Amino acid sequence: MSTTPTPRQILETLLPHLRVAAGYARFLQPKIAALPDKDTTDGNFFAAALTDADLAIQNFVEVAMLGSFPNTRFYGEEYQSSPNTGYFRAIDLGEQDDYLVTLDPIDGTKYYMDGHSNYQIILTVLNADDYEAVLAISPAQNIYFYALRGEGAFKGQLDMSLEECSPLTVSSNPEPTILLGTKMGALAPTLKNKYQVIDPNVDYSSSVQVPNLNGMFVGLLSGTVKQSGQFIDGGALAFLAREAGFIVTTLDGSPLPPLHTCKNYCLPGLVIATSKTVHQDLLEATSIVQMRS
Asked: What is the pTM of this model?
């Protein structure tokens, strides 16, 4: 395998391994035994959940990476717990065109542990300035989404090749529902006169599934506001949305900054919307709350 693979080659090579990982995640979900919570200081109980599946899937993908692309940078969410971390050339962003592959082995671990179907396995290919590719698998739903920079976004059944997938576009009639990030609950009162608002801190249920960010891709949401976007998950899904035609900006309506200017593998606040009207409503609500604080 070439030491300088293209983003498409990376997705094509790792997709079969990720299918196996998806099957493992499906098999293990009913049997999962939670490990001790991650050490987290931000109070986000979603980020605190850690399971056997997180570690096992990351280790599996790391083996595939080292076997296929041993000279490519790699950062996995569970890098501190992985025995493979030291074998990669680097775990951070490099110079332009020195790609960094990232992995969130189970995005939505809390959903996963509670038996919900909207968890994901997310793989990204990052350049110094922007995302080059994102692949987001929903194992329990047997579907995946992917996007390549400048080529649009696509959706397919898990057994489909990249070429067999269909274009992913913005729903023409999405539900009038807004998903708030775990630290954006203050926006709810301003938005509730026009939208149904989901605040995970209030509305999350272990027994009744509520949409997460990937609900935007199937028409369950009109928009979302997040205080920040981790490269490995929220930022990755924002890139997918952008390539599919959604409006994606920072909290003040500006374009997202180059990745190399960000710290701690994290983009600033994100606004993602299905239309200009929804986008403006979200920006106005954010502005009102910021003025009050």
From this structure: 0.92
